[in-house]
Amino acid sequence: MHKVTVEQNTKNLISKIPKEVSHVTDTLEEAGFEAYLVGGCVRDLLMSEILSGTERDKEPKDWDITTNAKPEQIISLFEKTVYENTFGTVGVCVPLFGETQDVSRETLAGDVSQDLPAEMEGTSKYKIIEVTPYRIEAKYSDFRHPDEIKFSDNLEDDLKRRDFTINSIALSSKGHLIDLFNGIKDIKNKTLKAVGNPDDRFAEDALRMLRAVRFSCQLNFSVSYETTESILKNSDLIRKISAERIHDEFVKIIMSSNPASGIVMLQKFNLLKNIIPELEEGINCEQGGEHIYDVWNHLLHALSHAANKNWFLEIRLAALFHDIGKPRSRRESESVSKKKYTFYGHEVVGARMTKKIMERLKFPKKEIELVEKLIRNHMFFSDTELITLSAVRRIITKVGVENIWLLMNVRECDRVGMKKKETPYRLRKYFAMIEEALRDPISARQLKINGEFMIKELGMKPGPRMGWILNALLEEVLDAPEKNTVEHLSELAKSLNMLGNNELKILGERGKEKKEEAEEAEISKLHEKHGVRRK
Fold first, then answer.
1. Average pLDDT over residues 522-532
2. Domain 294-438: which CATH class?
């Protein structure tokens, strides 16, 4: 076996390994077994040492260990373990050193999580470290799972079955890096390359083609020529993969820092046509009017803006799919000068298409409903000169107060996707109108006492006098908010009730005017905040 040792980086690498992880490798080695960190954790450690810039910020999330010990031998060395899967992976429950972490079934990855001891649920005493024996995997008849898994005594057997060279580097607790496939070189060159023959790797598990796109987006690596050619040749194999597994990789691509690049790669690699062919309908679908891009590029720019804003999944999906219905709803309109198109009802068509896509990819029902709602209503805010405050209130009721600002996020993505300013006057006008519609108007309802209280507790009779009194009380509170107490207002109401009708009416009208002035001032502040004028 060829060992590559990065002497100058060894101490730094080892110092970044959590004590809980070292405890597991030390225990295995003390028992006479080999133990190596492997996979993404080693890759991320090396990236932090080798690369410069933002790539140095990679911190391992999952710590995976491989060993020549067999599952029953691993289990015998530790007090608490989790083991119920077909891959030989044992979840070692290690007491935490220092900071605590809740342990739940969601803490664990894959099938390991199915057998968490009941007494550990909800505790904060353990960290789960996954340990897997060296493996040899036989033929993959279904392009997803090995027909048979055999344990090996040789680390090389385990490393050569892995997907990409950057994930096939092993690190011992002594600082030795085992790099049989030049993974370190590929990290330095920021290149993603399959281990061995890429056709074999993708035939073993076709999902690896999606993983290539995902790693490229997450790590900002390019895919090697040989790996790219193999993906193009084998792209149809992705149909063999379950929707659930495709969903997981697709979400990771969308949530990466450069999801638009990922969508382009999926299309160039002939993967998108097997996953979301509806998106390809937008390629070369001209829009005309204010749009300088075809539907495809418009959607990519909208998605990029959502990612640049670091907005969450549903907004990114709505940005990507918001105009997906345009190709199917496009109609050519008559124009003397040049071709013009209409897309009436594209938001309705797009919402239906998106629902089917997300159902096909096994998205949760709540996520589907929200994205569908955002797309269905994204055309609402179109003309600030025609839109009214009552119309804004209706759309808030329709999409929900909790979703109205998400709808505005999608609208902003749509706008920026046309290469327009991020927050032009029109968008600022929308923001102001929404805030105006959402705010509670100044009214007697803000008082600590009301008409019912005055009738039952103060013995007053309903009628115009009560309205005048309430307006007078409101004027008092607007001038001195600290006087808005049941005790103070009750005494003041009693005193006001002793006045004659004419005098009380004057006070009431004055209170009403004060309320209207305060209301106008609040709305003016709101419009000034967003830099828009009042009509």
1. 65
2. mainly alpha
> What is the C-alpha to C-alpha distance for residues 66 and 215, in angstroms, rounded to an integer?
22
Q: Where is 311: in which H helix or E strand? A: none
User: Which homologous superfamily does the CATH classification assign to the domain defined by 7-189?
Assistant: Beta Polymerase, domain 2 (3.30.460.10)
If you count them, how many residues does the chain have?
Answer: 535
For residue 8, the number of C-alpha atoms closer than 13 Å in the C-beta half-sphere is 2
Which residues belong to CATH 1.10.110.30 in the chain?
190-275
Phi, then psi, of 435 in degrees rounded to 5? -60, -40
- Return the SS3 of 148: coil
Distance CA 309, CA 291 (A): 22
Cα–Cα dist 34/69, whole Å: 7
Check pLDDT > 80 for residue 183.
yes
Contact by Cβ (8 Å): 266, 272: yes
Q: What is the mean pLDDT of residues 211-220?
A: 95
Cβ atoms within 10 Å of 284's Cβ, excluding its own: 11
Q: How far is CA 177 from the centre of its chain?
A: 35
DSSP H helical ranges for 421-500: 425-438, 451-456, 464-479, 486-496
Instruction: Indicate the helix (H) or strand (E) that contains 67.
Output: strand 64-67
- Residue range(s) of every CATH 1.10.3210 domain in the chain: 294-438
Q: Which residue has the higher pLDDT, 380 or 229?
A: 229
Mapped onto helix, strand or coil, the DSSP state of residue 178 is: strand
pTM given for the model: 0.78
DSSP letter at 240? G
CB 135 within 8 A of CB 151: yes
| CATH number corresponding to 190-275 | 1.10.110.30
From CA 57, how far away is CA 65, in angstroms rounded? 22
User: pLDDT by residue (tens digit) across 255-278?
Assistant: 999 999 999 999 999 999 999 999
Q: CA-based Rg of the chain, rounded to a whole angstrom?
A: 32
What's the one-letter identity of residue 105? R
- What is the per-residue DSSP string for 313-325? HHHHHHHHHTTTT
69 vs 152: CA distance, rounded Å: 9
